[in-house]
Amino acid sequence: MFTATGLKKTLLSITLLFSTYLASAQFNQSAFENRIRPDSSLTNEVHFNFYNLNYVRNYEYTNDFHDGYTLYGTQLQPQLVYYAHPNLAITAGAFIRKDFGRNGITDAKPLFSVKYHKRNLTLIFGSLEGNIQHKYIEPLYDFERTLTTPIEYGTQLLVERKKFILDAWIAWQKMIYKGEPAKEEIIGGLSTESFLVKNDGWQLSIPAQFLAFHQGGQIDVLKEIPISTVFNGATGFKLHKMVNTNIKQVYTDNYVAVYKDLSPDKRRAFEGGFGLWLNAGVESKWGSLVASYWKGNNFISIKGMPLYESVSDNLYSPGLRQSARNIVSLRYAYQKELIPHLYLDVRFEPHIDLDHTDKQLQFNHSFFLTYKQDFKLFKVNKGKSEN
User: 128 with 153: CB under 8 angstroms?
Assistant: First the structure.
């Protein structure tokens, strides 16, 4: 049987070996995405779009930066879609979340959006194609948010070309009225990827990402609480190589991440920091294996996974500071479309905190079952032809 020290050395060795040859920042998340776009072939049709995510995510953590707990439940997102024009789709529906083991509905929100699409450009107003669909790395945007807070309202601009992808968005998190005892909160960001090489199975690209959070306002009554503005960003390079049918691809996605407190009155533990996010992985018919290394220094995240931060939000050690963070993980995922429209995703993600060698190997594991399908209901017959 391996000792805790032996496991740590083995995991670190495997991580370094993979990092030499291949890498990936995170797993394929396409099964969780539900993108609805205008379609000229569907003009004047009304469709029913159904999305259901079932989840179990368990954290067997005993560290000072990320709590140990379990998320177990289901989500529904039924929507009506009216394809009003070859370039316009209007959606209306609801988001419903039920956590098992608790009475009643955990969360419910209306969904409404207007989507304009022409050539490579999409403009969305209302409920966004947000959350993990922005494609941020985990230190900037925690994957768990697709389970707990997946809905964003605001405005989004998407550009999808062969050699350039852009997602620019702004979401209003908390709106206030005159005299309220609360601050308004707004968040926005930009995620781009520029492809330098894209041929013969090779793909080299430069990603760039940033998030900005602002808390303030001029009509609240909390004048003793100052304006707060925080910035997170990341850039690096991604190198992918398609191989064959069994080993689909090997790839490397590596980033430098930054944090900066831009508030006039700085009250956070650190004014600025950075992190190095190195990964290694392979995608095959037997599953995906990803080795990752995070080296952080005074890093605070707006929406990222708490595990990578230098200031703790843990239930039993809130505010604990640790400037340097060194975390090694080796993650595995098995992803498969079981039948048309039904997707299975099973994950096992152990990690070691290299700054606390006395701690045992920590891990989280997940089980997801996603069903999504679009059904045509009827076609709207218009009396007059459009010019």
Answer: yes
